[in-house]
Amino acid sequence: MRVLVTGACGFVMSVFIRRFLQEHEEARVLALDVGEPDTAWSGHLADVAGRVDVERCDVRDRDRLATLFARHRPETVVHGATVTLVPEWEREDPGRFLDVNVMGTAAVLDAARRAGSVGRVVHVSSAAVYGAGDPGRTEPQDEDTPLEPDDMYGVSKVAAELVARRFAALYGMSVPIVRFTKVFGPMERPTSARTLMSLPYHLARALVAGTPLAVTPRTLRAAGDWISAVDVAAALGLLCTRPDVGSVAFNLAGGAAVPVPRLAELFGVEMVADPERAVADMDPALRSGKDGIYDVGRAARLLGWRPRDLAQQVGEYREWALAHWTPETLADPGGAT
């Protein structure tokens, strides 16, 4: 199987590539990214590097996409390229989200349908499509929850989903959509498209450094529906290989609200309320929409996928962090990758 992955040097896509190639010895991946792979990415994929072809490509460049699709003849595409939410970016250049996340998606889908070799495009969306949601809602949200984005990133993701659905209808393409949020795990690191790190990332750093983690006081009253990138990668692999998954959306999440103190306990890290030194801030009032709990029943029914126990997910990430980071590399701004 030949799989083309956009945004390949990013956090979740790098975890997916390694897992997919480890599980499918006959597979080969064409990794597209707008930038050069960093040393962390190259090291992460060292054991499967012989089956990874790396090409620089801006997903908005239709001519470049056409050339690469024709040369490599992929059978499946996982479209993960995106510009993620940074509030400053939204204010400074809101059009960037639409340009990359919407027009880039259209360009990838058009290249896929013209290639003649692609049978499926897995479109990576986001729980940002749900926006703030209904503040009074307490039950898990399924994929039919109204899409009411409240930032330009979410707006761009809703628009990209609509583009994906239209391509599926127009050309008979299989374009399943995945929505996830609060993802953590190996290979999370600052990049040109991602600058806001997850709470588990900060907890992992504190674990390696052997120091408490300073957060805002209200963060200690917050909760979240966290999911490991390894579990997300497993679902993406199923979407690449399972027949007849259609072009529907899938929530990928833990399916339960986990209080922040419990998350810290799983990491074995002490948290201290210190607004002056806080590296993380979560609002405990945000418990719905993109910050809510997700119903993952559709993925269970159609893919046979369920998230592992959170303790197992965190334990795996702890082991990875301790194996790849040291207090010395954490002290170097460019070292903890």
From TrEMBL:
It comes from the Bacteria. Residues 141-150 have a biased composition (Acidic residues). Residues 3-252 form the NAD-dependent epimerase/dehydratase domain. Residues 131-150 are annotated as: Disordered. SUPFAM superfamilies: NAD(P)-binding Rossmann-fold domains. Gene3D superfamilies: NAD(P)-binding Rossmann-like Domain. PANTHER family: DTDP-D-GLUCOSE 4,6-DEHYDRATASE-RELATED. Belongs to the NAD(P)-dependent epimerase/dehydratase family. This is NAD(P)-dependent oxidoreductase. It comes from Microbispora cellulosiformans. The lineage of its organism: Bacteria, Bacillati, Actinomycetota, Actinomycetes, Streptosporangiales.
